[in-house]
Amino acid sequence: MRIRSFASLLLAAVALPAVALPAAAQDLYHGLTILDPDTGTASPDSYILVEDGHIAAIGTGLPAAHGDAVLHDLGGQWALPGLIDTHAHLTLGPTEIRVEDEVPVMRAVTDQEIVTHGARMLLSYGITTIRNPGGSTEENARYAAEREAGERLGPEMVWAGEIIDRGPFAFENLVTLVTPEDSVADIVAAQADAGARYAKLYTGLDEDDLAQGIGMAHEHGMQTIGHFGDVSWTRAADLGIDSIVHAMPTSPDLLPADRRKTYLETRRQGPLQFFEWYEAAALDAPEIAQMIETLARNDVTFDATLVAFEPAFFGDDEQLLSSVAEHAHPDMVKNWRSGFRFDAGWQADDYARARAIWPKALQLVRMMYEGGVPMTIGTDFANPFIAPGLSMSREMALHQQAGIPASAVLRMATSDAARSLGLDDRIGAIRPGMEADILFLAADPRPDLARIANVEGVMSDGMLMTPKDLRSGF
Length: 474
Prior knowledge:
single chain, alpha/beta, Urease, subunit C, domain 1, TIM Barrel, 8-stranded mixed sheet, 5-stranded parallel sheet
């Protein structure tokens, strides 16, 4: 979607430095190698003609006639479609905890400075579109509207409202609890009326809740995102879920029958279950094969968010945590350092057990890919020790480490993600007629996808920006 104008953007962005010049009527970027994720081909000495925020033409060399187009020699840079993070909680800030009537109440704070920081950092790493899978309905709608109106600089966002769950206590601005007065269907319908395109269904819901939520979402033209506990991914797929997130299944029904009783009797609450499930799991068991086949057959999209669990499983590695923290907003880092983290209370033995099963988690992700499950790349930003933008390159590198070809991972982060979001008619590819969302790199990223973080420039709706300017002031 076209940013209204650069001048109006600057007027809206009080105290923010300029990050680009307004595009000319036509801009011709040449000297490029265009990387096509869908075909895996690289076309050297290419050009991209941009007009009115869209790609007007592509080709090799220079066009014989280019009229009044302003020429930009990008000197051998690589160009690929703007990246799509399908799991980014952009509007979430620090988490607060208070006690009311001896019951804990959690609250996700929304801080516009943190939102601005996150949006600009995402862009600076070439992320031009995100799916926000849960947060304040009001704040998510606000960001999307401001961005559409040209009043906010950041990636385009498609979004869900508050996560829908049953639970023992409230989590304000992040979770809406099902009550006798507000059913799953009621909550989904209200979020649809507010403009949400997705409904996120959470771990405390049972099969009847899921069926009700999925049915109501589809009735309103919404898609559903699932993060499940005891309900298996296989069952959720049969119920009609559209997308499943996190490579951390915890359902006993996905374990061999002879291991379920012990798992249920010994598992602990919270994130500790993640590695305890993998300890009990047999990835060559028929339950896993059936799960993968069912997900693929039902076209259920999966994003693994491995980078969200690495800081917990390796949470005793201060070097790892610090390398992420230096790229996140200081108030978020302070919140994580003060105790809001997935590995809170873990002991040395817990870290050792978690690290031991990490290769098994990577293996499951590879099996999902090999089994034909449609996959995208998501980071779970703004959860603990996930840096906006930078963690996208880490997530892609982890998929490559799992044994998934780089070309497939690039598709997951671009064209496959666009298709999964229903936006492939305008983003996810460099071809005439598409929106000019383009990532420029100094070198071919395929040998090592961590290189995707080495951004030379990013174009969003035809406006070219540099990482340095996007990150200035933070």
